[in-house]
Design brief:
64 residues; two-stranded antiparallel ribbon; 3 helices; 44% helix; globular; DUF3606 domain-containing protein
Length: 64
């Protein structure tokens, strides 16, 4: 018997963090308006916090 995680047709899920609005994320990490707009166009109004951190760091956001 195969488990769900062993089946090829089951999409792999990764941990993306809790869902936050892009605006709240931008305030928390003090992002400028240009980066906030870029993240909104890439992800829409909400996304996982870890996913946003990874995307912002790839675009030059300094690590704390």
């Amino acid at each position: 018997m195969m488990l769900d995680h062993e089946r090829e047709d089951v999409p792999r899920r990764s941990f993306l963090g809790r869902a936050v609005t892009i605006e709240a994320f931008a305030r928390k990490y003090r992002l400028d308006a240009e980066e906030t707009k870029r993240l909104q166009s890439q992800f829409g109004p909400t996304a996982g916090e870890i996913e946003l951190l990874q995307a912002a760091r790839r675009n030059g956001m300094p690590e704390e």
